[in-house]
Amino acid sequence: MNTTVVPGSTGTVSARGLTKVYGKGAGQVVALDHVDVDFAPGRFTAIMGPSGSGKSTLMHLLAGLDSATSGSSRIGDTEITALGDDALTELRRTRIGFVFQSFNLLPMFTAEQNILLPLDLGGNKVDKEWFATLVQTLGLGERLTHRPAELSGGQQQRVAIARALITKPDVVFADEPTGNLDSRSGAEVLSFLRRSVRELGRTIIMVTHDPAAAAYADRVVLIADGRIAGDISDPTPESVLAGLDALRTLETTPVAATPGGGQA
Ligand SMILES: Nc1ncnc2c1ncn2[C@@H]1O[C@H](COP(=O)(O)OP(=O)(O)OP(=O)(O)O)[C@@H](O)[C@H]1O
């Protein structure tokens, strides 16, 4: 598969020299360290790496949920890192969809009302054809009048995915979308996410800890110590595990290579 990505082209999500430093002085943490990465439109990418490696920080900066210390991030030709608060709010509302581990559906609303909520909030009309396509692709036809408490976890997450896609965003960011699901419902949700990319041409960037989940993506970007540490095309659970193992080896090599365990 051709993985060439042109930064600035429609829907491409890009970071250049993206850096995030938390705190000051001795307590300073470099969470992201000059990250350059591009995510092609119409693809499903998983971001993986050890705990504390900077996955959430990268996602938050790419989505305009947090500000960068230096460097830039873009969605298409919009430089997120240059936008003020109002423009960022507007961008998140209209051009980005979010799917969280905890579904975040409104309990008093039906599935249909939850899906349509972003349009109601923005005062936008429903594209009935798109709504019908989403409902069909996500297998929600029988569940539209149900409230979240009457739905399984997997069904709730499918509603959350439809809600994220209803505005036809340039990109959907999914943060551990299967973290609260058993493995069967998780697999089902991941299949639906993959269908959304393949059949509806959407762009999804997902943070996950789970190699089996990452294997549903077209590509896995590995991150370690705030830097891009690997890139796997057409991943399988085995190739993802091997990639993560290689990161661990990198982390332990300097210690193992120093006789007596002293500092080199
Ligand atoms: N608000 C904050 N203040 C200070 N340090 C932070 C803050 N948020 C994150 N960090 C630090 O930045 C680094 C990267 O954190 P981040 O949450 O991006 O990692 P992660 O890969 O998503 O981790 P996990 O897999 O455990 O969720 C960590 O060392 C973390 O402790």
TrEMBL record:
Transmembrane segments: none annotated. InterPro entries: AAA+_ATPase (IPR003593), ABC_transporter-like_ATP-bd (IPR003439), ABC_transporter-like_CS (IPR017871), ABC_transpr_LolD-like (IPR015854), MacB-like_ATP-bd (IPR017911), P-loop_NTPase (IPR027417). The keyword Transport applies. PROSITE patterns: ABC_TRANSPORTER_1, ABC_TRANSPORTER_2. Signal peptide: none annotated. Residues 13-250 form the ABC transporter domain. Keywords: ATP-binding, Nucleotide-binding, Transport. GO terms for molecular function: ATP binding. It comes from the Bacteria. This is ABC transporter ATP-binding protein. The lineage of its organism: Bacteria, Bacillati, Actinomycetota, Actinomycetes, Micrococcales.
